[in-house]
Amino acid sequence: MILEIENLNKSYQNHIALSNINLSINKGGIFGLLGPNGAGKTSLIRILTHITEADSGTILFNGEKLNQNHIYQMGYLPEERGLYKKMTVKDQLLYFAELKGLNNKEAKIRLKYWVDKFEIKDWLGKKVEELSKGMQQKVQFIATVLHQPSLIILDEPFSGFDPINAQVLVNEILQLKANGATIIFSTHRMDSVELLCDQIALINKSEKILDGTLSQIQQQFKQNKFELHYQGEELLADNNFTIGKHHNNGDVRSCEIELKQAMKNNEILQLLLQKNISIVSFGEQVPSMEEIFIQAVNQKSNSHQYA
What we know:
alpha/beta; about 35% helix
Protein backbone atom coordinates (compact mmCIF):
# COMPACT_ATOMS: atom_id res chain seq x y z
CA MET A 1 0.00 0.00 0.00
CA ILE A 2 1.23 3.50 -0.76
CA LEU A 3 -1.51 5.11 1.36
CA GLU A 4 -3.43 3.78 4.35
CA ILE A 5 -6.04 6.15 5.75
CA GLU A 6 -7.71 5.26 9.05
CA ASN A 7 -10.60 7.01 10.81
CA LEU A 8 -9.94 10.39 9.20
CA ASN A 9 -12.10 13.30 10.34
CA LYS A 10 -12.19 16.97 9.36
CA SER A 11 -14.60 19.77 10.23
CA TYR A 12 -14.79 23.47 9.43
CA GLN A 13 -16.73 25.30 12.15
CA ASN A 14 -20.20 23.70 11.93
CA HIS A 15 -19.55 21.82 8.67
CA ILE A 16 -18.35 18.19 8.68
CA ALA A 17 -16.08 17.71 5.66
CA LEU A 18 -14.88 14.15 6.34
CA SER A 19 -16.38 11.63 8.73
CA ASN A 20 -14.45 8.50 9.73
CA ILE A 21 -12.86 7.90 6.31
CA ASN A 22 -10.95 4.62 5.84
CA LEU A 23 -9.13 3.92 2.57
CA SER A 24 -6.29 1.72 1.36
CA ILE A 25 -4.64 2.68 -1.93
CA ASN A 26 -2.44 0.16 -3.74
CA LYS A 27 0.90 1.06 -5.28
CA GLY A 28 1.16 1.36 -9.04
CA GLY A 29 -2.55 1.72 -9.81
CA ILE A 30 -5.08 4.41 -10.61
CA PHE A 31 -7.48 5.17 -7.76
CA GLY A 32 -10.69 7.01 -8.61
CA LEU A 33 -11.84 9.41 -5.91
CA LEU A 34 -15.47 10.18 -6.76
CA GLY A 35 -18.31 12.19 -5.32
CA PRO A 36 -20.68 15.13 -5.93
CA ASN A 37 -19.55 18.70 -5.38
CA GLY A 38 -19.04 19.34 -1.68
CA ALA A 39 -18.77 15.64 -0.84
CA GLY A 40 -15.35 15.97 0.83
CA LYS A 41 -12.96 14.95 -1.96
CA THR A 42 -11.03 18.22 -1.99
CA SER A 43 -10.78 18.23 1.80
CA LEU A 44 -9.18 14.79 1.67
CA ILE A 45 -6.75 15.84 -1.06
CA ARG A 46 -5.73 18.95 0.88
CA ILE A 47 -4.96 16.83 3.93
CA LEU A 48 -2.89 14.39 1.86
CA THR A 49 -0.87 17.27 0.40
CA HIS A 50 -0.39 19.00 3.77
CA ILE A 51 -2.37 22.09 2.77
CA THR A 52 -4.60 21.49 5.80
CA GLU A 53 -4.50 19.08 8.74
CA ALA A 54 -7.03 16.48 9.81
CA ASP A 55 -8.82 16.84 13.13
CA SER A 56 -8.17 13.18 13.90
CA GLY A 57 -7.15 9.94 12.22
CA THR A 58 -4.01 8.40 10.79
CA ILE A 59 -2.43 8.50 7.32
CA LEU A 60 0.49 6.23 6.44
CA PHE A 61 2.56 6.92 3.33
CA ASN A 62 4.62 3.86 2.36
CA GLY A 63 4.21 2.63 5.93
CA GLU A 64 5.37 5.88 7.55
CA LYS A 65 3.16 8.46 9.22
CA LEU A 66 2.51 11.17 6.65
CA ASN A 67 4.83 14.15 7.12
CA GLN A 68 6.12 17.21 5.26
CA ASN A 69 9.04 15.33 3.69
CA HIS A 70 6.62 13.15 1.74
CA ILE A 71 5.50 16.19 -0.24
CA TYR A 72 8.59 15.84 -2.42
CA GLN A 73 7.32 12.41 -3.52
CA MET A 74 3.92 13.82 -4.54
CA GLY A 75 2.61 15.75 -7.50
CA TYR A 76 -0.70 17.61 -7.22
CA LEU A 77 -2.72 19.06 -10.08
CA PRO A 78 -5.54 21.10 -8.48
CA GLU A 79 -8.87 21.75 -10.16
CA GLU A 80 -8.24 25.49 -9.83
CA ARG A 81 -5.32 26.88 -11.84
CA GLY A 82 -2.22 27.16 -9.64
CA LEU A 83 0.00 29.01 -12.10
CA TYR A 84 1.53 32.49 -11.94
CA LYS A 85 -0.03 34.42 -14.81
CA LYS A 86 2.83 36.89 -15.30
CA MET A 87 5.64 34.31 -15.36
CA THR A 88 6.81 32.64 -18.55
CA VAL A 89 6.07 28.96 -19.00
CA LYS A 90 9.75 28.01 -18.83
CA ASP A 91 10.53 30.00 -15.69
CA GLN A 92 7.42 28.70 -14.02
CA LEU A 93 8.12 25.03 -14.72
CA LEU A 94 11.74 25.30 -13.59
CA TYR A 95 10.63 27.13 -10.44
CA PHE A 96 8.12 24.42 -9.50
CA ALA A 97 10.66 21.68 -10.23
CA GLU A 98 13.21 23.30 -7.91
CA LEU A 99 10.56 23.65 -5.20
CA LYS A 100 10.18 19.86 -5.41
CA GLY A 101 13.90 19.32 -4.86
CA LEU A 102 15.39 19.20 -8.37
CA ASN A 103 18.52 21.19 -9.14
CA ASN A 104 18.41 23.52 -12.13
CA LYS A 105 20.41 21.21 -14.42
CA GLU A 106 18.24 18.16 -13.78
CA ALA A 107 15.07 20.25 -14.05
CA LYS A 108 16.10 21.48 -17.52
CA ILE A 109 16.83 17.92 -18.69
CA ARG A 110 13.41 16.69 -17.57
CA LEU A 111 11.69 19.78 -18.94
CA LYS A 112 13.14 19.11 -22.42
CA TYR A 113 11.56 15.64 -22.35
CA TRP A 114 8.09 17.06 -21.69
CA VAL A 115 8.55 19.98 -24.08
CA ASP A 116 9.23 17.51 -26.86
CA LYS A 117 6.48 15.17 -25.71
CA PHE A 118 3.77 17.84 -25.67
CA GLU A 119 5.30 19.89 -28.51
CA ILE A 120 5.27 23.14 -26.51
CA LYS A 121 8.66 24.61 -27.43
CA ASP A 122 6.98 27.69 -28.89
CA TRP A 123 5.18 28.33 -25.58
CA LEU A 124 8.22 28.46 -23.31
CA GLY A 125 8.76 32.20 -23.61
CA LYS A 126 5.08 33.10 -23.30
CA LYS A 127 3.39 34.26 -20.13
CA VAL A 128 0.73 31.94 -18.73
CA GLU A 129 -1.97 34.58 -19.18
CA GLU A 130 -1.32 34.45 -22.95
CA LEU A 131 -2.22 30.75 -23.14
CA SER A 132 -5.60 29.14 -23.72
CA LYS A 133 -7.26 27.20 -20.93
CA GLY A 134 -6.20 23.89 -22.46
CA MET A 135 -2.58 25.05 -22.89
CA GLN A 136 -2.51 26.19 -19.26
CA GLN A 137 -3.74 22.77 -18.19
CA LYS A 138 -0.92 21.09 -20.12
CA VAL A 139 1.63 23.35 -18.41
CA GLN A 140 0.12 22.57 -15.03
CA PHE A 141 0.21 18.84 -15.77
CA ILE A 142 3.92 19.07 -16.64
CA ALA A 143 4.54 20.98 -13.40
CA THR A 144 2.79 18.16 -11.54
CA VAL A 145 4.90 15.31 -12.93
CA LEU A 146 8.23 16.97 -13.78
CA HIS A 147 9.93 15.80 -10.55
CA GLN A 148 8.76 12.20 -11.19
CA PRO A 149 6.64 11.77 -8.05
CA SER A 150 5.64 8.31 -6.84
CA LEU A 151 2.14 9.59 -5.95
CA ILE A 152 0.29 11.84 -8.43
CA ILE A 153 -3.00 13.49 -7.45
CA LEU A 154 -5.08 14.75 -10.37
CA ASP A 155 -8.20 16.80 -9.59
CA GLU A 156 -10.36 17.11 -12.73
CA PRO A 157 -7.32 16.87 -15.05
CA PHE A 158 -9.35 17.00 -18.29
CA SER A 159 -10.85 20.41 -17.58
CA GLY A 160 -10.38 22.68 -20.60
CA PHE A 161 -9.28 19.93 -22.98
CA ASP A 162 -10.82 19.10 -26.33
CA PRO A 163 -11.28 15.36 -27.09
CA ILE A 164 -7.92 15.06 -28.92
CA ASN A 165 -5.88 16.62 -26.12
CA ALA A 166 -7.90 14.70 -23.52
CA GLN A 167 -6.81 11.47 -25.23
CA VAL A 168 -3.18 12.68 -25.19
CA LEU A 169 -3.48 13.15 -21.44
CA VAL A 170 -5.12 9.74 -21.00
CA ASN A 171 -2.13 8.16 -22.76
CA GLU A 172 0.30 10.01 -20.50
CA ILE A 173 -1.57 8.97 -17.36
CA LEU A 174 -1.47 5.33 -18.45
CA GLN A 175 2.26 5.66 -19.21
CA LEU A 176 2.92 7.12 -15.76
CA LYS A 177 1.10 4.14 -14.27
CA ALA A 178 3.17 1.76 -16.42
CA ASN A 179 6.30 3.47 -15.10
CA GLY A 180 5.26 2.64 -11.53
CA ALA A 181 3.52 5.81 -10.34
CA THR A 182 0.37 5.66 -8.23
CA ILE A 183 -2.36 8.04 -9.34
CA ILE A 184 -5.31 9.41 -7.39
CA PHE A 185 -7.83 10.60 -9.94
CA SER A 186 -10.64 12.87 -8.76
CA THR A 187 -13.29 13.56 -11.38
CA HIS A 188 -16.97 13.86 -12.27
CA ARG A 189 -16.38 12.21 -15.66
CA MET A 190 -17.57 8.64 -15.22
CA ASP A 191 -16.42 7.60 -18.70
CA SER A 192 -12.86 8.42 -17.63
CA VAL A 193 -13.28 6.36 -14.48
CA GLU A 194 -14.28 3.28 -16.48
CA LEU A 195 -11.37 3.82 -18.85
CA LEU A 196 -8.62 4.46 -16.31
CA CYS A 197 -9.35 3.36 -12.75
CA ASP A 198 -8.39 0.11 -11.03
CA GLN A 199 -9.98 1.01 -7.69
CA ILE A 200 -12.57 3.59 -6.74
CA ALA A 201 -14.04 5.17 -3.64
CA LEU A 202 -17.23 7.21 -3.63
CA ILE A 203 -17.63 9.91 -0.98
CA ASN A 204 -20.94 11.63 -0.36
CA LYS A 205 -21.82 14.12 2.38
CA SER A 206 -18.45 13.54 4.10
CA GLU A 207 -18.81 9.74 4.28
CA LYS A 208 -17.37 6.92 2.19
CA ILE A 209 -20.28 5.02 0.69
CA LEU A 210 -18.49 2.76 -1.83
CA ASP A 211 -14.99 1.31 -2.03
CA GLY A 212 -13.47 -1.46 -4.14
CA THR A 213 -12.21 -2.46 -7.56
CA LEU A 214 -14.22 -1.41 -10.59
CA SER A 215 -15.39 -4.97 -11.25
CA GLN A 216 -16.39 -5.49 -7.60
CA ILE A 217 -18.49 -2.33 -7.60
CA GLN A 218 -20.18 -3.22 -10.90
CA GLN A 219 -20.99 -6.72 -9.65
CA GLN A 220 -22.47 -5.20 -6.49
CA PHE A 221 -24.88 -3.05 -8.52
CA LYS A 222 -25.82 -5.42 -11.32
CA GLN A 223 -29.54 -6.10 -11.61
CA ASN A 224 -29.75 -9.52 -13.29
CA LYS A 225 -30.52 -7.89 -16.64
CA PHE A 226 -29.39 -9.41 -19.93
CA GLU A 227 -29.57 -8.43 -23.58
CA LEU A 228 -30.71 -11.19 -25.93
CA HIS A 229 -30.67 -11.31 -29.75
CA TYR A 230 -32.45 -14.33 -31.20
CA GLN A 231 -34.38 -15.82 -34.07
CA GLY A 232 -37.71 -17.62 -33.86
CA GLU A 233 -41.06 -16.99 -32.25
CA GLU A 234 -41.40 -13.94 -29.99
CA LEU A 235 -40.11 -14.70 -26.52
CA LEU A 236 -42.67 -14.27 -23.75
CA ALA A 237 -42.14 -13.67 -20.05
CA ASP A 238 -42.55 -16.59 -17.64
CA ASN A 239 -42.02 -17.40 -13.97
CA ASN A 240 -38.25 -16.96 -14.31
CA PHE A 241 -37.90 -13.62 -16.10
CA THR A 242 -39.66 -10.53 -17.41
CA ILE A 243 -39.28 -9.04 -20.88
CA GLY A 244 -38.57 -5.43 -21.79
CA LYS A 245 -37.48 -3.31 -24.78
CA HIS A 246 -38.50 -5.78 -27.50
CA HIS A 247 -37.36 -4.89 -31.06
CA ASN A 248 -37.29 -6.58 -34.46
CA ASN A 249 -34.45 -6.09 -36.92
CA GLY A 250 -35.30 -8.16 -39.96
CA ASP A 251 -35.39 -11.80 -38.91
CA VAL A 252 -33.46 -11.10 -35.68
CA ARG A 253 -35.38 -10.11 -32.57
CA SER A 254 -33.81 -8.37 -29.58
CA CYS A 255 -35.02 -7.85 -26.05
CA GLU A 256 -33.94 -7.15 -22.50
CA ILE A 257 -34.70 -9.89 -20.00
CA GLU A 258 -34.63 -9.43 -16.24
CA LEU A 259 -34.34 -12.50 -14.04
CA LYS A 260 -36.57 -12.83 -11.01
CA GLN A 261 -33.76 -14.61 -9.16
CA ALA A 262 -30.01 -14.98 -9.71
CA MET A 263 -28.97 -17.78 -12.04
CA LYS A 264 -25.73 -18.90 -13.65
CA ASN A 265 -25.26 -18.05 -17.32
CA ASN A 266 -25.41 -21.69 -18.39
CA GLU A 267 -28.70 -22.12 -16.53
CA ILE A 268 -30.16 -19.06 -18.27
CA LEU A 269 -29.08 -20.33 -21.69
CA GLN A 270 -30.59 -23.76 -21.06
CA LEU A 271 -33.82 -22.10 -19.99
CA LEU A 272 -33.94 -19.93 -23.13
CA LEU A 273 -33.16 -22.81 -25.48
CA GLN A 274 -36.23 -24.62 -24.14
CA LYS A 275 -38.26 -21.76 -25.64
CA ASN A 276 -37.58 -23.05 -29.15
CA ILE A 277 -35.50 -20.05 -30.22
CA SER A 278 -32.11 -19.77 -31.87
CA ILE A 279 -29.77 -17.53 -29.85
CA VAL A 280 -27.69 -15.07 -31.91
CA SER A 281 -26.03 -13.31 -28.97
CA PHE A 282 -26.51 -13.09 -25.22
CA GLY A 283 -24.81 -10.89 -22.64
CA GLU A 284 -25.23 -9.46 -19.17
CA GLN A 285 -25.93 -5.74 -18.85
CA VAL A 286 -23.28 -4.38 -16.51
CA PRO A 287 -24.24 -1.01 -15.00
CA SER A 288 -22.13 1.96 -16.05
CA MET A 289 -20.23 3.97 -13.46
CA GLU A 290 -22.58 6.89 -14.12
CA GLU A 291 -25.59 4.70 -13.25
CA ILE A 292 -23.83 3.38 -10.15
CA PHE A 293 -22.80 6.90 -9.08
CA ILE A 294 -26.38 8.21 -9.32
CA GLN A 295 -27.90 5.18 -7.62
CA ALA A 296 -25.41 5.12 -4.73
CA VAL A 297 -25.69 8.86 -4.06
CA ASN A 298 -29.50 8.73 -4.14
CA GLN A 299 -29.58 5.73 -1.81
CA LYS A 300 -27.33 7.50 0.68
CA SER A 301 -29.35 10.73 0.47
CA ASN A 302 -32.58 8.82 1.10
CA SER A 303 -31.09 6.97 4.07
CA HIS A 304 -30.06 10.32 5.62
CA GLN A 305 -33.50 11.76 4.94
CA TYR A 306 -35.35 8.98 6.73
CA ALA A 307 -32.79 8.26 9.45
